[in-house]
Amino acid sequence: MGNGKFGGHFYPGLYIFFYGLYQAIVVSKAMIANDSTVHRSYLPKNQKRCSKLWKIAFGGWLKIVTGFLLTLYVVFCLDDGMVLINKETPPRFMYPQEWQHLTMFILLTLDGCVDVLSKNVLQQRCVALEKASMALGIYVLLLLLLSHVQVSSKVELRVHCLLILVVFLLMLVLTAELWANGSFYLQLIKNFLFLMMGSWLMHTGFILFRPISGYPWKDDDIMFVTTFFCWHVVINALCLLGVYGGISSFWCRCYSPSLRLMGSKEVLYHGSSSGTFYRLLRDAEQQEKDDWALLSESPGCDRP
């Protein structure tokens, strides 16, 4: 059971962390490129069937596959299988934490199904449906976490309370996104909270089940739980800043030659404003304007 509990924290945390990292890259690129078509439809009517392969909702399918694999992991990590009620008298409910894990992973699978439905089945992508589905999953996750901890030590309680704090903040951000869709700032905060939840879940597995020292944590070590959580805040913030800074640098080098050309032109204007080159450049631009005016007045010109 120890290995099963470790995997129940580490593998979902690994998925959530990389999901947040991927979304951070997408949002950072959209911010830099000022892309207003982030939520465009994935199924134009005049698009050929072969080209639709490039518009598959890979994020949604990844949620479906990950949720399905984690569901199988929860079911088969128990020796006697997932049993809801035993056969004793009186009957008792069995494996409460595992059933909560199973509920979380099923919700992840359903969220992926909603993404695929919106992006690849509907004629017009419904972003509000995707946002509402993710928000609903986080609501349920928060409710399950509030009753998930069977307090056996102060360390376990503190670890899960900090996780509940991150999930609560994520719930608020997702709720705000339902009314402020397209806000880059909310998306950045959301991605940061996903990174926090993923990295902290992975670290939780090591704190509670596989401590690096080989010895279980004591209640006297509870202050270090908060200290490590603060380190996660700083490291994930630097990670998000590194993603944005790296993409900014790459975008400016490879995809914005026009910006560099405009900058060079401004330098020439300001650097030679009193010289011969500035006058020649200004006269050339004026000549182009005069030629365009003559062409527009000619009877053979097709005006827009």
From TrEMBL:
Topology relative to the membrane: Multi-pass membrane protein
Major place of residence: membrane
Pfam families: DUF716
Transmembrane segment boundaries: 12-32, 53-76, 102-122, 134-151, 157-180, 192-212, 224-252
UniProt keywords, alphabetically: Membrane, Transmembrane, Transmembrane helix
GO cellular component: membrane
Subcellular localization: Membrane
Taxonomy, superkingdom: Eukaryota
Membership in a protein family: Belongs to the TMEM45 family.
Name of the featured protein: Transmembrane epididymal protein 1A-like
Phylogenetic lineage: Eukaryota, Metazoa, Chordata, Craniata, Vertebrata
